[in-house]
Design goal:
Arc Repressor Mutant, subunit A, single chain, HTH_59_Firmicutes_type, Helix-turn-helix domain-containing protein
């Protein structure tokens, strides 16, 4: 995998929400868990960098299904 491919495989929660047509809050709650539930993403599919959540395309696809066609 090239460096460009690596960069394209990771996105912010806001970008992921836009690309998948989800609310930003829905994606962030999949990172943090909700009402005592564990996070929906698996280890290695997401991480927090400062105040920004980073998510892999693979994680989004596993949790929310394939990215909708544009």
């Amino acid at each position: 995998m090239t460096e460009k491919d690596l960069l394209q495989s990771v996105m912010t929660a806001t970008e992921a929400a836009e690309r998948w047509g989800k609310a930003d809050r829905t994606v962030r709650q999949a990172c943090t868990g909700y009402k005592g539930a564990p996070p929906r993403f698996k280890e290695g599919e997401f991480r927090q960098s400062g105040k920004v959540w980073l998510i892999t395309v693979e994680g989004m696809t596993r949790v929310f299904g394939a990215e909708p066609a544009k």
